[in-house]
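All the exercises in this workshop are built on plain-text protein records. Sequence and backbone structure share a record, each on its own labelled line. The question running through the whole workshop is how a given chain folds. The record below serves as our worked example for the rest of this section.
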Amino acid sequence: FDRPSPYAGLLQKSLQQFFPAFAGVEVEATWNGPSDRSVTGLPFFGQMSPYGNVFYGFGYSGSGVGPCHMGGQILASLVQGQNNDWTRSPLVDGPLGYFPPEPIRYLGSLMVRNAIRRKERAEDHGRRPRHLDVR
């Protein structure tokens, strides 16, 4: 996962469409890696074992600054062993479901990724997305 994104060209084109003033500006760097997606689409947090010192936060997949702040509060409270609103969050002790086995998982991920692309392309061009692409 240490290679440039295979979508660098698409990213460059999209940035130029959204920000025409940057038409001549090249993208400095891109990256590649696995998608961090949860079954619910929400991040989840927890502790590897009740007596361990390994804590986790997964499933962000572009969730943004707000969920990252919230995740930091949850993880900090878990590490300190607190019993508060953060540690009682429904997002603690995930994951709350499981993806299907391969190859169904891989094929499903391609279907979802392509539906997201079609939806965003339609919205970018002022069109209404197909019903199946928004469900």
About this structure: The beta strands are 44-47, 55-58. The chain has three domains: 1-33, 37-97, 99-135. The longest strand covers residues 44-47.
